[in-house]
Amino acid sequence: MRVRVASAGTGKTTSLVGSYLALIGGGVPLRRIAGVTFTRDVADELRQRVAAGIGDVARTGSYLGGLYVAPAGTEPLFERARAELGGALLTTIHGFMIAGIRLSAPLLGYDPAFGLLPEWEAQALFDEELNSVALVAARADHASHRAAVVAGPVGFGLAGSVFRLRSLSQTLTFGASELDAAVAELYEEAYARYLRRLGPSAMAPGEVERAALRLLGSPTARERLARRYPVVLVDEYQDVNPLQGEFFERLAEAGVSLEVVGDPKQSIYGFRSADVSVFRRALDAAESSGDLLEPLTASRRHSQAVVAFLNRLTGVMGEAGLGFTTREAPPVTAAGSQAAVAGRVDLIVAERQGPLGDARRVEADLLAERLELAHHDGRAYRDMAVVARQHHLLGLVERALEARGVPTLRLKGSGFYRRNEVRDVYHALRVGVDPAGASLSAFLRGPFGGLGLADLATVTNATEPRTALADVRPDVLDVIDALRRIARLPPIDAVKAVIRTPLAADTRLVDVVDDRGRANVDALLFELAAQTPPDLELLLDRLDELAERAEAADVPEGGEGVRLLTMHGSKGLEYPLVAVFDAGAQLRYRPQAVLVDARTGSVTLHAAGGDERAQAERSERDRHEAYRLLYVAASRARDHLIVTGSVNRPDPQGWLELLRGPVLEGGAPHGTHVTRTSEAPARRRPPPREHHADVAPLAAPWIDSRFEHHPYEPLSSPSRLVGLLAEAGGGVGADAGSGEGAATGGGVGSQAEATEPEATEPLAAGESILSDEWGWQPSDAVDAGEPGAASRVDSGDLPGRGRVVGTLVHFAISQDWEADDVGSLDSLRAQEVMFPYSAEQRDELLAEVSELLRGYQDMLGAELPSLSARTSDRAEVPLAVRGGSTVWEGVIDRLYAVGGRWVIDDYKTDRVVRPERYHLQLGLYLHAVERAIGTRPVGRLVYLRSRTVVEPADEDLRGALQASGIVDVSR
Asked: Which CATH class is domain 867-964?
């Protein structure tokens, strides 16, 4: 494993792009390289940067003015990489694990199309199972009754905390006390129920990690993953948790070439189970083996003054071992355009006797004054950010800025979910679910109820609150009844209704909040639309959780102004001016209710006692992480860094002790200025807002425009097109034995009649069956060759026999499975598409699949070229091509090169050979591949039942495509 240390602003992403280009220039196909980052946003950015780098090298032969220069003769390699970019794997850690699991899902007992749960939803499901255990264990005859009695409500809560920490160790072991044993029993029973509930078709991040480690325990699956991705590049390696670290270490042991980049100075996610010792373990191993790469030390982010300050800070901290070591903190230099920026660093200390809170208010006023001065000097407020450890500290700064008329903007965190308008939505929905619940008072007092204190007391103190409300405010009672109906809607629709439906006094919530509040409820809708829980209760639990967590959300509030965000929320961001607030706070540590030792998996419960050593070790880890947090916050600044702190005693505390002592010993670094004061600047009143008369907005010029109706859906599949055009032309579908869906094969339809009139000719009697002998209707909604077709089954779309056979045959051929391989057949038997059938019916289906597979194998080396004769061979090639106003998305069964030509084989399980049905589908495949690789393949239909290969004339395929109007191939 190769390891590189990269300090903040030194170009980790640029380094990874350089590694990509070097690998491609060395002959490694892009499709064999996996790029792994910490978040989806960073993965998207890396994809864009890699694409730009490949494009630069393909055009000019170099990247970033010579950072990488392609060797002579490698131009075809970069052209090939450009063609492969759409299918390249650049994803998150969990995304990479998921890709590996899907490669061998049946082998591991998972559905290949398993779904994913966010971690918060997994926690909610586990808590539900824990509540179920509590319910059944209340009976004296239940096996867990004694454990439930010993644990009590506190013990059940501890079991939920253990679930949150399960990524620290693959195996958890509990202590020997009675409480330990009780919590262990409750946790294990609830976790077993949770796993049964998910089954093989869904996983949360914690279970993805465990499944990925199981994968590496299987020689077959491990070898398959290593062959598929022999090179893996990992960014932000300092933030991996112990299970993720073990996964990558074992991957390297399996022969995968691994390069990791990270910065131990920025490891600040211990509360998410991240463990900096994983990076240090890799660093030690690389140093011993000679695989330690040169650190990145040229900062293109920071000005001269900020670089000088950060070098002094990291040097002192590294020497003292506070957060990191000198090996992990190489000095950096200003580079690029920032090398010419002098910059500035200000350390402002508010010294004041009395309570520290008073000194903090002075500190906030001093900071507000300094930001206002910077604005007068030409710095826009949107280019400034204030970072603090906690949200309530940001509230102090916000009030000080508002007193000067300075606009502010909260960017991240639970502060958003505590905003009044967001909580109003929450309470309204909660009242719709439970009208007499805990949210009733907040709802009645809020904008939907608007009750005064006297009426509120009358209602809440009444024996029958509903009757009392009917006497006091019957209109509000009508609102509650409306909310009860709204609560039955799908979650996102319920939120929309609460925000936008006239409820109390015929007004909407968006009409009674200010511009900022309106932006906030819109942002809430966007966030929930991106990831909506399946039911309203889960959504409400999620909003509750986000409101209570210190670091949780990614929802921005709308507007302009100074950015206010927590230090954890600032990770990965940068601003021209950054202020670090409250550097004088004492670093405090609270005992943790549950601790898990990542080295041993030992679970320690504080309530059980005897955890002094574990708590001391955790406290020490938290202390070091707090110092790393200072580095992260300070390194967000590009040009100007301001650090403020409060002192109410002779000796400063916290970060200020470090900054005033060792960092500034012998004089401040170049460009750093120190201000000490006990006087608060005079506050001034903000200028009054201008009021403008309401002016009716002009209608937009496009208000009466209409979109033209799509001839097909905006997104469809080539196989679906066969059925759509057959319906339009009056023909009937392929017979029930077709793997393409039993009602999808009836030709190219009326649009193609001029060139292929026979394509819509009805089938003869007996050639088509509208329902199979087991009584289920075949469906034309899913192409058996599409990804995931094997598992898209629900109660409204039970698969017909023909589609099941086609699905399994396509999958088995793509895996090169043998007809007589018992293990392969067992894997097919476990596919979800088989679940609706009885054991006897499954046997019949597998017998038919084996027969078709045997026919395919007999054709290899005869009608079809043998696998060994093919110079390139790809199965299940994903396809996405625009044709007209529709994007056609599907899967090409087989694309291979043999004898100097490319060939597309499209497998058919039809009982009747009628190739004209598929001219349009095959023509679209050829057109898409020709656009991608620059040469036109030969298209063939491989009929597995009759063991017949049909190669339609290319002019027929072009004619069908041209006649359809989807693509103009005449030019």
From this structure: alpha beta
